[in-house]
Amino acid sequence: MTDFTDEHQARIDLAAAFRWAARWDMHEAIANHFSLALNEPGTQFLLNPAGSHFARIQASDLLRVDAEQPTDAHAPDPTAWHLHAELHQRLPQARCILHTHMPYATTLCCLQDFEWLALDQNACRFHGRIAYDRNYAGMALDATEGQRVAGLLGAGKSVLFMGNHGVIVIGPTVAQALDELYYLEKAAKLQVLALSTHRPLATIPERLAALACAQWNDYPTAYCEMHFAALKQILDHEEPEYKT
Fold first, then answer.
1. What's the domain count of the chain?
2. Rounded distance, CA 155 to CA 237, Å?
3. How far is residue 43 CA from its own chain's centroid?
4. Is 201 inside a domain boundary?
5. N or C terminus of the chain: which is more exposed, having fewer CB within 10 Å?
């Protein structure tokens, strides 16, 4: 069950996600944005402030913004405001939103008419769950762009490949969204490397890709939570200030 009451823990979790995105080279220095809804309607959420580097973000740095108070729109970066505010309110499944220009997934976003390949077990995790935006429209500098992007993430979709731009990953918790982001980039890297060989690709048949996706979703242990707990333990030892 989603807990909207513990803002302190929400801040720690989101700060940890920023730190690991920087460690994994999935960031754009002070650009790109992560957010986490604090109420069920998605009108209130945490967001990184403009000018903060992913590698240095602390729990207390995160902005608490309210989509129903327009003055808040001037505090964060405007592209983050228009995109994340719309997605949080329009997509109940998007409690956590991670938007990055991570290198390998973004490379695939720049290939004409690219469709995700069932090339390895990690790729199968995203079988049928990726939406595509093939109409790059520039930066999200008004609410209509956020509305347009929200409309692309329909039922069953948790990843958006944004043509000539980057990716959006959504999830019910930071742990789940960050785990997805990690495995998405791992699988994307493998696809870029495989495509670069110019050899025929041994793709996994549709039936088996669907089976593997279901097995990922029904895995008997809380894998993403265990992964995230281990990541936070590393930060607790090496960068404990992230929690402050």
1. 1
2. 39
3. 19
4. yes
5. N
| CA–CA distance, 213 with 121 (Å, rounded to integer) | 9
For residue 28, what are the domain limits? 7-243
User: Cα(203)–Cα(118) distance, rounded to whole angstroms?
Assistant: 5
The b-or-e profile of 133-166 (16+ CB within 10 A means b, else e) is beeeeeebeeeebbbebbebbeeebbbbbbbebb
Residue 1 resides in a domain: no
Residue at 195 is within a domain = yes
Per-residue pLDDT of the chain (244 residues; tens, 9 = 90+): 456 779 999 999 999 999 999 999 999 989 999 999 999 999 999 999 989 999 999 999 999 999 887 655 446 788 888 899 999 999 999 999 999 999 999 999 999 999 999 999 999 999 999 999 998 877 877 778 889 999 999 888 999 999 999 999 999 999 999 999 999 999 999 999 999 999 999 999 999 999 999 998 888 678 999 999 999 999 999 999 999 9
Look at residue 142 in the predicted model and tell me its pLDDT: 76
pLDDT at residue number 38: 97
Are the CB atoms for 242 and 59 separated by under 8 Å? Answer: yes
Look at residue 2 and tell me if it is in a domain: no
Give the CATH number for residue 127: 3.40.225.10
Sequence letter at residue 138: G
Distance separating alpha carbons of residues 20 and 55, to the nearest angstrom? 8
